[in-house]
Design a protein that fits this description.
Length: 616
């Protein structure tokens, strides 16, 4: 690399976000010795907001064969709320609908008649009592009541108390609640102000076709408990508005049959819940063929209950894989039960290792539950718990040896099994100018379901503990201009099988290197990228330029033999988006830390591409 070229790179890096520079300074203290890169045993995944797509089974060279089915995300794909940059929202959050847009103009409470007006005759009230209120107490109206007690007043003045109580309810959002003076005898100077708090006698849902009305009714029922509060109803309708099964929603309150009751009429327009997406990219390991062809099918609301099904097929020149998932809501709170599974087979096709005739077969399955603690258009907080099991076998056809323990920790047949309990927490905060997202996951390996168990220290097995934390910040800089800052960290207490390890290298981590050039038990990553528009062909077609800087480090437990544990890359990307159906990206990454490589693939040259087209 020439001195002028290095100078240009150094100058360019100095313009990148300060967090990237701080990370670089820190990582520089850990050393940057050269070493031969360890190829990826399991591929990177597409972190999709709609579905965390898993990639299937790869077989790397014999010095680092996969111990787990590479259909699982490398180092655990734990952040569906933090997808690749391509899947994050490129536009600010649209304005939320107003109360009038969702409900229409509020109507006066349907109250029973009070006592007849008593003209201008005066009387003295010693005490005013509030009856029938579950929202306010007498103390909340003490100042109001004191103005009308122990002084001569007329009945018309007493009605001002009723009106003030009603107004207090309306201002608090209880627009169908109100107060009245019931017929009563003035005894001991005590007057009772009766409150009739509004309730909903029926939720009427119209406009649904496949979606069952009970799906909408049950979710609004959570916020339609008496007394009716339009602020709560508005929040419930806004949650429906962000539901992927619903395109638009509007509502209005109509007077019910009985006094104080209302009918909530909700009109729903269903969203298109069926998608078929085709994609091509070179994000897979060159060992099994870096160019990947993928076809995904996703259907929402299969049974009308809000369930979702996903099917995916992935193919490279050396691998085939299928994966599937099914998710169904268990309650109106959007608690969901999730099932996932997949199977894949692969073989090494890279010339250097093809003579070994290495192949791999892997499958996995997982069952889990997710529950949102907070769910609104601007904030989401959720918890998840899942039990997963993976089974992977590596074979060598050399001299007809058949199955062989080619990887550390595998049994005599080259098979490794991992069972793990995974507890995740996720948070997303968004407004019209930025998105903040974070996700944490604790992984506890278990000795169940026939999982691999090794007694020797420093040998990976299914008994492990690790933590993965990820975060991302997206900021709108101007019209069509965005800044992305992403961080990723994994810490483990034990040696891990490769499917649980932290990978660095490739388009989704450190550009300028092949997919997962480093694969270690622990790791950290900081990535900064700006997207700047250079040409807009139409309202739905734009081309952006994307300069970036990626820095990361990775290390193993019980092993300090690796010469290189730091990678850094910089470069530029070109992004084209044509409406919501077609997108393409081309990246050129320049490695800032040299790694020995005898391969001449596009990845080793720092070139990555991806094309995605939504067929339906």
């Amino acid at each position: 690399m020439s001195s002028s070229y290095r100078c240009w790179i150094s100058s360019w890096i100095s313009a990148v976000a300060s967090v990237g520079l701080l990370a670089t300074a820190y990582l520089a203290t850990t050393g940057s010795e050269q070493a031969i890169a360890r190829p990826l045993p399991s591929d990177s995944t597409n972190h999709s907001l709609a579905h965390p797509t898993k990639q299937i089974a790869q077989v790397p060279p014999p010095d680092n064969l996969p111990e787990q089915p590479p259909n699982l995300p490398p180092a655990g794909n734990i952040l569906p709320e933090l997808p690749p940059d391509d899947d994050l929202p490129d536009e600010p959050l649209p304005p939320l609908p107003s109360l009038e847009e969702l409900f229409g103009e509020p109507s006066d409470p349907n109250l029973p008649p009070g006592v007849l007006e008593g003209g201008e005759e005066t009387f003295v009230v010693s005490e005013i009592q509030l009856a029938g209120s579950t929202v306010f107490s007498d103390e909340d109206f003490a100042e109001l009541f004191d103005r009308f007690t122990d002084v001569p007043i007329t009945f018309n003045e007493l009605l001002q108390v009723r009106s003030a109580v009603t107004q207090r309810y309306v201002e608090a959002g209880f627009v169908t609640s109100g107060a009245f003076i019931p017929p009563q005898t003035l005894e001991n100077g005590v007057v009772t102000v009766q409150v009739l708090e509004g309730s909903i006698e029926e939720i009427e849902v119209v406009g649904t076709s496949r979606l069952r009305p009970a799906y909408v009714r049950s979710r609004l029922g959570l916020v339609a408990q008496p007394p009716i509060n339009t602020n709560r109803l508005l929040a419930g309708l806004q949650r429906l508005k962000i539901d992927p099964l619903i395109e638009t929603v509007s509502a209005d309150l109509q007077a019910g049959v009985r006094p104080g009751t209302s009918v909530l009429r909700v009109e729903v327009s269903e969203a298109d819940a069926f998608d078929i997406t085709a994609s091509v990219d070179n994000r897979r390991s060159p060992n099994i063929g870096s160019v990947s062809r993928r076809l995904d099918l996703q259907a929402g609301n299969v049974s009308g209950l809000g369930d979702r099904i996903f099917l995916g097929y992935t193919n490279t020149n050396g691998s085939n894989g299928i994966d599937a998932s099914y998710s169904i809501p268990l309650s109106p709170h959007n608690t969901r039960l999730n099932f996932e599974g997949g199977y894949g087979g692969s073989r090494v096709i890279e010339d250097t290792f093809e003579v070994l005739d290495l192949s791999s077969n892997a499958f996995y399955y997982e069952i889990g539950i997710t529950h949102p603690l907070i769910e609104s258009p601007t904030q989401e907080i959720s918890l998840g718990l899942a039990l997963s099991h993976t089974n992977n076998q590596i074979r060598s056809g050399l001299d007809d040896l058949g199955p062989a323990p080619l990887v550390p920790g595998a049994d005599g047949d080259g098979r490794s099994k991992v069972s793990a309990l995974r507890f995740s927490q996720s948070w997303t905060q968004r407004d019209q100018r930025q998105v903040l997202a974070a996700r944490s996951q604790f992984n506890l390996g278990l000795n169940i379901l026939g999982a691999t168990n090794n007694d020797a220290t420093g040998i990976p097995d299914s008994q492990f503990f690790s933590w993965r934390g990820q975060g991302q910040w997206v900021r709108l800089l101007g019209e069509d201009a965005l800044f992305f800052l992403r961080g990723d960290l994994q810490l483990a207490t034990d040696r891990l099988f490769s499917s649980e390890q932290f990978g660095l290298g490739g388009q989704q981590t450190i550009r300028g290197y092949r997919q997962n050039a480093l694969l270690r038990d622990n790791g950290a990553l900081v990535s900064a990228e700006a997207r700047l528009p250079i040409i807009r062909f139409s309202r739905d077609s734009i081309v952006q330029i994307a300069p970036f800087l990626d820095v990361g480090t990775a290390w193993d437990n019980f092993d300090d033999s690796a010469d290189t544990n730091v990678l850094a890359g910089t470069g530029i990307g070109l992004i084209w988006e044509q409406n919501e159906d077609l997108s393409a990206r081309l990246d050129w990454g320049i490695p800032l830390v040299d790694l020995d490589s005898t391969s001449n693939s596009l990845q080793d040259s720092g070139i990555y591409f991806s094309v995605r087209y939504n067929l339906f």
